[in-house]
Design goal:
This protein is 79% helix and 0% strand. By secondary structure, the protein is mainly α. Helix 1 packs antiparallel against helix 2, helix 1 runs parallel beside helix 3 and helix 2 runs antiparallel to helix 3. Keywords: Membrane, Transmembrane, Transmembrane helix.
Length: 126
């Protein structure tokens, strides 16, 4: 994971997060049950937060220990994809079993933030 890839992925995640949020608010409103619409909102919300998190890691990169920073970015991207992706798929397919995958994405997101903290602790520049 490099700063360039983090910026690219973060910007794309944010653009898609806005698009999926708008689609949920306008396109899905009449098509899915209110509980599934809330699931969609949660997916978009976490996607936006972690898209910004990817940009944060890229911005802090020069001041962080590089190996844990790379791991933090990779974990965050993986968590974003698994967490939000599983929730989007759950809403679109109504396969409730996909909800079992979602916590894995959440754990990856938590691990990414903890790894970012580790990258800061290991940094000689802070």
């Amino acid at each position: 994971m490099t700063p360039r890839i983090l910026i690219l992925c973060g910007a794309l995640a944010l653009a898609l997060g806005v698009a999926t949020g708008a689609f949920g608010a306008h396109g899905l409103k009449r098509l899915v049950a209110p509980d599934l619409l809330e699931v969609w909102r949660t997916a978009a919300h976490y996607q936006l937060i972690h898209g910004a998190g990817l940009l944060l890691i890229a911005a802090l990169w020069p001041r962080l220990a590089p190996t844990p920073a790379a791991w933090a970015g990779g974990l965050m991207l993986a968590g974003l994809i698994v967490f939000s992706g599983s929730l989007y798929a759950l809403v679109l397919t109504d396969l409730r079993a996909l909800g079992a995958v979602t916590p894995i994405g959440g754990l990856l997101m938590i691990m990414s933030w903890l790894t970012l903290a580790w990258a800061a602790c290991r940094s000689p520049c802070l």
